[in-house]
């Protein structure tokens, strides 16, 4: 049995025509599965008997086992799912004024090992398949009986360390005959794997790119994110400038405010200098404390002052509010302690 959620519509067309079916059958199948949420071929009434029999014998859809589901006071929901091989992954549904977004996990664990991140505490066990990312969306939509309008690849894992599967996932959920999540409603967040930023710039899609920057100087950034030794700030910024020029898209920088580490007004000034003239905005993130590390969250006043300084210096910025903090559900806060 192959998994339908791994197929882009173009690939499904190819597969079905090779088997003697019509190309438009792929579109019909996408509509059944993703739009009408009907996964049993028996009920796909506009498909031929032969195709339904073929589907029953050859294609299935991924289902994840719900291990736990938690609800935070602000309505954020964290699902812990078990994969086929029993690894546990998390997906977080957040409610916003503009709709609902799902924070999707892309790998079991993460090899980048940032010194503030709970996900990086555990080495990567394996990459997720596209179908396992699609399944997170399908499962949450069904369990919540809701429609997800935005997707962020910001759960556990480094999307650019699982590039092909993540791009396949994006193509599948973006398909107009499928879930139809607009490219501008999808955001990929990377710790800064430079070669993949160039690859991403070559893709003909309007998917948002977010770069986890977190520091304006190499010494601090290397301390926070060891990936900076391989791809230091100069190389990263060169790649980001290329991306912005090539795609005409605005890039987002995520900047985690860590008390006494990178949150002074002088840091804000230096960050402004680094980003001046670039079509970007900075998303200031409050640090969700992780018990294994002794970083501090910047106090609210410090965060506000940092934000105001960036604005004064002409840098677009937002101060991200914490979502689901009471259940450790904020993105990047996906705990290895599965009992929590
Ligand atoms: N690996 C990718 C995407 C997953 S992490 C990346 O690093 O960009 C998503 C975001 O959560 C990143 O910006 C990351 O730096 C941030 N993050 C990690 N740990 C965090 C924590 N304890 N508190 C707040 N944000 C955190
Ligand atoms: Fe991996 Fe991102 Fe966490 Fe760094 S912040 S360890 S890249 S998930």
How is the biggest beta sheet arranged? Answer: 10 strands, mixed
- In the CATH classification, which architecture of the largest domain applies? Alpha-Beta Barrel
- Estimated share of beta-strand residues: 15-25%
The SS-based structural class is alpha/beta
Secondary-structure element sequence? EHHHEEEEEEEHEHEHEHHHEHEHE
- Uncertain regions: pLDDT < 50 for 5+ in a row? 335-340
Kindly report the CATH topology of the largest domain. Answer: TIM Barrel
Q: Say how many strands there are.
A: 14
Distinct ligand kinds: S-adenosyl-L-homocysteine, iron/sulfur cluster
CATH class of the largest domain: Alpha Beta
- Distance N to C terminus: 35 Å
Number of domain modules = 2
CATH superfamily of the largest domain: Aldolase class I
Large-scale geometry: elongated
Helix content: 25-40%
Strand order of the largest sheet: 3-4-5-6-9-10-11-12-13-14
Q: Radius of gyration in whole Å, from Cα?
A: 21 Å
Rounded average pLDDT? 93
Continuous helix count = 11
């Amino acid at each position: 049995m192959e998994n339908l959620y791994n197929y882009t519509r173009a690939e499904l067309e190819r597969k079905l025509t090779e088997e003697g079916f019509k190309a438009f059958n792929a579109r019909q199948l996408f509509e059944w599965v993703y739009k009408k949420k009907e996964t049993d071929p028996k009920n796909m009434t506009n498909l031929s008997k032969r195709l339904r029999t073929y589907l029953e014998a050859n294609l299935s859809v991924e289902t994840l086992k719900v291990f736990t589901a938690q609800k935070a006071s602000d309505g954020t929901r964290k699902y812990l799912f078990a994969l086929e091989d029993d690894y546990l992954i998390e997906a977080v549904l957040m409610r916003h004024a503009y709709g609902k977004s799902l924070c999707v996990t892309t790998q079991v664990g993460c090899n980048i090992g940032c010194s503030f991140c709970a996900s990086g505490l555990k080495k990567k066990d394996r990459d997720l398949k596209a179908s396992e990312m699609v399944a997170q969306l399908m499962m949450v939509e069904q369990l919540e009986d809701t429609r997800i309008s935005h997707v962020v690849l910001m759960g556990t894992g480094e999307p650019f360390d699982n590039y092909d599967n993540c791009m396949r996932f994006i193509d599948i959920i973006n398909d107009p005959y499928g879930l139809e999540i607009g490219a501008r409603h999808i955001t990929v967040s990377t710790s800064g794997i430079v070669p993949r930023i160039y690859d991403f710039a070559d893709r003909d899609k309007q998917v948002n790119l977010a770069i986890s920057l977190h520091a304006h100087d190499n010494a601090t950034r290397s301390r926070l994110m060891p990936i900076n030794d391989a791809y230091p700030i100069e190389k990263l910024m060169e790649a980001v400038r290329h991306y912005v020029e090539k795609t005409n898209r605005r890039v987002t920088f995520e900047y985690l405010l860590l008390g006494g580490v990178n949150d002074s007004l002088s840091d804000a000034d230096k960050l402004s200098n680094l980003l001046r003239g670039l079509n970007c905005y900075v998303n200031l993130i409050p640090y969700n404390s992780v018990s294994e590390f002794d970083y501090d969250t910047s106090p609210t006043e410090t965060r506000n002052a940092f934000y105001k300084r960036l604005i004064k210096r002409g840098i677009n910025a937002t101060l991200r509010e914490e979502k689901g903090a009471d259940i450790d559900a904020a993105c990047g806060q996906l705990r290895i302690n599965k009992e929590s």
